[in-house]
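hey so i finally got around to running both of the ones u sent me last week. sorry it took forever, my laptop kept dying halfway thru and i had to restart like 3 times lol. anyway pasting them below in the order u listed, first the sequence line then the structure token line for each. didnt double check formatting much so if smth looks off just lmk and ill redo it

first one:
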Amino acid sequence: MVILIADDEADIRNLVKITLEENGYTVLTAQNGKEAWDILRTRDVNLVILDVMMPVMDGFNLLLKIREHSTIPVMFLTARTEDMDKVLGFKLGADDYLTKPFSIAELVARVGAQLRRNNEYLSSKEKANTRITYGSLSIDKEKCCAFKDGEMIELGAKEYKLLLHFMENPERVFTKRQLYHAVWDEEYYFDDNTVMVHISRIRNRIEDDPQEPKYLKTIRGIGYKLHYTGENNEKKTI
């Protein structure tokens, strides 16, 4: 599980980071809201811990940006103790609000509770939504199989995960680095050639003409996206 801490107080960041790492979490840190947002745009994060009062971008504004794109758990850890601040935080979409000074043991317990709730929610959602269809492509998540026009496509494990990532996020552009981190789950290593090779293999399976792809489009200078202009181009989840 990856947790992001955004706080302009280095002592707080270090204390929380060390403690959470001792409890088995991977921890990323940022000293302001903008740094945190840059991390969230490129990394898969399971939970965010935010201070309210930060330079460049404060916690409330960062939460607004997060909620435009994600439902990941967000906790406030802040010296703002007024009830109106707490109410505002929850109205903006916070999942928890802990004030400073705080008990580090309580923080760890609350982090664990938020992650458990989110995992239970995602598990129930995944069980209810096991098949995704987009154009003539479909994926059965329960059986880990992909199909085109009802015929099964032979894909390797990484190719399947890549296609699933695109199918779950149609029309969204991903950089090669984002795709590598999402599928290979390597925190510090990145190989764009590996991504390109797997994209080529997927195209050979799903495209009528891999040289003129109708699904997996290259966005020059940025990366790739799944985009189909034919009929049935809406994502359907069953």
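and the second one:
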Amino acid sequence: MQATLDTRYQQVGVVVCDMDNTLFDFVEAKLEACRCVVDYLGTGDPEALFRMFLRGVYGFEDTRNIRDYLEALEVYQPLTLEVCCRTYEDVKLDLVEPYPGVEETLQCLQEAGIRLAIATDAESVQADRRLRKTGLIDFFEVVVTPDVSGQRKPEPASLLYALRKLDATPEGAMMVGDSLARDIAPGQQLGMVTAFAAYGAWYRSRAVEVSADIVLSEFSDILDHVHIQDRGL
């Protein structure tokens, strides 16, 4: 089995990355944004506000979750909502920073001729803002979001879109992400090499009977598995 996997690694010419909690700690930025909103209000619980975003009613980034939270606290006013949403978005964006080694690893992959893409469930505007804030946007030839592919993960549409744009086959590509259900499972379904960003995994919605080909303790571990020395480095 090891020999088979080694052969597959040698064939990897494309790496498709999830974004949030794979390239940077988005959850901690989001939690701190919730803390700042509660500080502004002078009442409430940051964890409770954060949980509003996990309900699946509107979406993980939709500020209507903040409106519902204000209504639950009975402090809703249009101006209050406006300030809270602005505070939330500004703090969240300000705090996203690449995990250690991410930029250097992406540069090494890029210089090795490995093509890079993003497949994220963030909307295009949010993805663009975060990739520009972190200085990572220029590493990626393709950024695929649900408003581009038409579907959210774990549907494979975003991964397939990225592969088509890069003229790549699943067998010659690696999927890297922090969610076994939403990143690793669709990657395996397509026949991609899969790398689980265990360092960023934070949420377990249900038991997932899937295991990745590679488990990463940090993003730079990718370099141990793509045989960049075969690409002239």
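quick thing i noticed on the 2nd:
The chain has ten helices and six strands.
anyway thats it, ttyl
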